[in-house]
Amino acid sequence: MEITLEEAKSYLRVTSSDEDALIESLIAAATEQVQDITRQSDEEFMANEERALIRIRIAILFTVAYLYEHREEADHHALNLTLRDLLFGTRKEGF
User: What is the pTM of this model?
Assistant: First the structure.
């Protein structure tokens, strides 16, 4: 599952390259966070069916946007609850 810098910048409506490094870091952090929420190994995460991949991509972009917009005062508990709701259908019950 690869969210590109260009895709994230388009989602964020960012046109300059001033914050490219920050956005790339947020993509990596968001991808890990979404994978943790789904409780999937790397192999499982990459092997999701198309419908699940769409949900996962949206969750990653949402997380990037949330972390970008709330970098000073992010409520990670609320973010995790939202991600659990978004990813309910792809989340494993346990590890």
Answer: 0.89
